[in-house]
């Protein structure tokens, strides 16, 4: 094709079906489009801006770091990275941390860690990782291979060997977990992209107990559920279980790209010098954003706020469900990761909300996904509910 023809193409590859607005500015729970129109942002950049947009306390610390040093390779000590690792260790059941720059990369590292732990520490041949129906683990080839959703896999075969899928929340199938080849399980405690589906308590307990008994690593993908999204810092805390490995990204840097793999000491043994790496992973700027995010969560008691907001929002959504039960089947999720299961088209609801200056998401065809900043408040929730009410009242007519 000639250059002449090429110039008529859009410069961006069309990998996203973009909504017809451009966001130019954000502050706290609001964003402004390029025409200056204001929107209540209940997407938080898909669970990234958990402290709202451009949070002052993170901005100040990133600005300070901007003056000193942006990047430094992992061939040298990076004190900011070490500090962020220590903070994550303190908050979790894990002992050591590896940093990267995104969620898919964090899952890649977890997959590599599980295989290497099995092959070198345990001296076994087991390499298989069990994941679950409707999961989402990212878009790189191994993360996609771990993902059990055909719609995003078409055309990318062959996939990476060594993944097996079991039905999510299916108590019986846990008996099929160990087949002699399984070294790890990777799962979301509330499935995000798959439809905002929380894991059942009894299922998780049996899964965790079976993993322990069979010597299988339990790996929690907390990329969407982590950093306070479900009301506790990690979602696993609410289930009374302890994963061996946890992956994080989205909210960790408040919008600055950073991902992490946390592991218990035993599993972390598998990584030694040279076994894994990342150029950008945990660089001083990213680490400064991460430290500032975690410190702000502590200082402003953001988890408490998130729990209160989550309860209030869920109560109000359930009241809406009672009133418009023909359109709303159920409200599910944890904390501020909520899904409204609708009998009508979720995309239509999202589009109508945007026209009424409220941004929300879908999770599959019939689920409206609501991800407010953890720092939202009752007046914003009321504003959101009144817009949703208008939409459902109109659907009724
Ligand atoms: C978003 C997400 C990922 C992928 O993260 P990226 O940063 O887009 O690579 C993986 N797992 C879960 C549960 C997610 O929500």
Keywords:
12 helices, Aspartate Aminotransferase, domain 1, 397 residues, binds pyridoxal-5'-phosphate, alpha/beta, cytoplasm, aminotransferase, Class-III_PLP-dep_AT, pyridoxal phosphate, Aspartate Aminotransferase, domain 2, four-stranded mixed beta sheet
How is this structure best described in words?
The protein is of the alpha/beta class and 397 residues long. It has two domains: 21-54 and 301-396, Aspartate Aminotransferase, domain 1 (Alpha-Beta Complex); 56-299, Aspartate Aminotransferase, domain 2. Helix content is 37%, strand content 18%. The protein contains twelve helices and 17 strands. The chain has helices at 3-7, 44-47, 56-68, 79-91, 103-121, 141-146, 201-214, 265-268, 284-299, 302-323, 346-355, 378-396, and strands at residues 23-27, 30-33, 38-41, 96-100, 128-132, 163-166, 182-187, 190-191, 197-198, 217-221, 245-248, 259-263, 328-334, 337-342, 358-359, 361-362, 367-370. A seven-stranded mixed sheet has the order 4-12-11-10-7-5-6, sandwiched between helices. Residues 102-104, 107, 136-138, 188, 192-193, 221, 223-224, 249-250 line the site of pyridoxal-5'-phosphate.
């Amino acid at each position: 094709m000639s250059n002449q023809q090429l110039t008529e193409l859009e410069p961006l590859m069309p990998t996203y079906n973009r909504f017809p607005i451009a966001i130019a500015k954000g502050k706290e729970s609001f964003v402004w489009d390029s025409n200056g129109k204001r929107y209540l942002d209940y997407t938080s950049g898909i669970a990234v801006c958990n402290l709202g947009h451009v949070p002052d306390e993170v901005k100040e610390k990133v600005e300070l770091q901007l003056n000193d040093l942006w990047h430094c390779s992992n061939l040298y000590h990076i004190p900011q990275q070490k500090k962020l690792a220590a903070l994550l260790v303190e908050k979790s059941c894990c002992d050591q941390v590896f940093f990267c720059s995104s969620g898919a990369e964090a899952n890649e590292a977890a997959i590599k860690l599980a295989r290497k732990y099995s092959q070198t520490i345990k001296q076994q041949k087991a390499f298989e990782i069990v994941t679950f129906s409707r999961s989402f683990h990212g878009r790189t080839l191994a993360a996609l291979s771990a993902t059990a959703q055909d719609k995003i896999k078409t055309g990318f075969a062959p996939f990476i060997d060594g993944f097996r899928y079991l039905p999510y929340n299916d108590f019986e199938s846990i008996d099929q977990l160990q087949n002699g080849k399984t070294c790890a399980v990777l799962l979301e405690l509330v499935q995000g992209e798959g439809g905002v589906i929380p894991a059942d308590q009894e299922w998780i307990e049996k899964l965790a107990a079976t993993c322990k008994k069979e010597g299988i690593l339990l790996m929690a993908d907390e990329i969407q559920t982590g950093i306070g999204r479900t009301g506790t810092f990690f979602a696993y805390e609410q289930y009374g279980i302890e994963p061996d490995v946890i992956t994080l990204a989205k909210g960790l840097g408040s919008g600055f790209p950073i991902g992490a793999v946390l592991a218990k000491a035993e599993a972390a043994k598998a990584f030694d010098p040279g076994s894994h790496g990342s150029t950008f992973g945990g660089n001083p700027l990213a680490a400064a954003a991460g430290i500032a995010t975690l410190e702000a969560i502590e200082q402003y008691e953001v988890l408490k706020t998130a729990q209160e907001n989550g309860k209030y929002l869920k109560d109000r959504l359930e009241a809406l469900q009672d009133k418009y039960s023909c359109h709303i089947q159920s409200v599910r999720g944890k904390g501020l990761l909520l899904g409204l299961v609708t009998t009508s088209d979720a995309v239509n609801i999202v589009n109508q909300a945007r026209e009424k200056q409220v941004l929300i998401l879908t999770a599959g065809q019939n689920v409206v996904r609501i991800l407010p900043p953890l720092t939202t408040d009752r007046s914003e929730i009321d504003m959101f509910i009144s817009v949703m009410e208008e939409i459902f009242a109109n659907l009724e007519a």
